[in-house]
Amino acid sequence: MEPELTLDTLAPLERAEITRVDWAVLAPEEAKRLQALGIDKGARVAIAHRGIFIGKDPIALMVGRMQVAIRRVHAKAMTVKLV
């Protein structure tokens, strides 16, 4: 069995599909914002680039043709599979 990957561990431009989101670790308003942007189970995503400061925050996430900045803690709550 393959180990679970989280979105924060993807290499830049590596494509993946979100398989699970642990919404319980996110504040309700953060969860609503991410869902409104289409960042949920089944979404195909890739990391465009990461911040340059300590912690590598924020992460620029490509969702379709859109780029969204998310925090590393958000990405860590998302389990993905490579596509």
TrEMBL record:
Residues 5-82 form the Ferrous iron transporter FeoA-like domain. It comes from the Bacteria. Keywords: Iron. Pfam families: FeoA. This is FeoA family protein.
